Amino acid sequence: MTEISAYTCKDCGKRTHVRHSHCPACKGTSFDEAPLSGKARLLTFTRVHALSLDYEDRHITLGIVEFEDGCRALGRLYVDDPRIGMELTAEIGIVRVHELEEVKGLCFK
Q1: What is the DSSP letter of 45?
Q2: CA 96, 45, 72, 28 torsion: positive or negative?
Q3: Could you tell me which residues are beta bridge partners of residue 87?
Q4: How is residue 18 annotated by DSSP?
Q5: Which of 8, 40, 41, 77 might form a disulfide with 63, Cβ 3.0–4.6 angstroms?
């Protein structure tokens, strides 16, 4: 995973970050894939403290953002003091380390 992708339903135009088997808006099954980039605005966030014992971190922060094209996505926040509405950039990065293996996913900085 090196590039962030969005998927646009060919039937209704709904754009999502994660590819679904069926469009959440119209239940269509055909999608176009395109890169997802640009600035993202933080809509909400939460800190998770009840992590399993195999996490190296004692807590993580997750956020939901909205990109300039309206696509929303969930990812790990690497921001010391998150504020609703702040602008972030998205990248593929390390979301956790499990048994010495780096697990990559969507990160916001």
Answers
A1: E
A2: positive
A3: 41
A4: S
A5: 77
pLDDT tens per residue across span 73-104: 999 999 999 999 999 999 999 888 877 888 89
Closest C-alpha among 67, 5, 72, 65 to residue 35 = 5
37-109: CATH architecture: Beta Barrel (2.40)
Domains in the chain: boundaries:
1-36, 37-109
- At 53, list the tokens: 């014992």
Task: Quote the DSSP letter at residue 13.
Answer: -
71 within 8 A of 17, measured Cβ to Cβ: yes
Please name every residue paired with 39 in a beta bridge, in sequence order, or none if there are none: 89
Distance in angstroms (rounded) separating the CA atoms of residues 63 and 70: 16
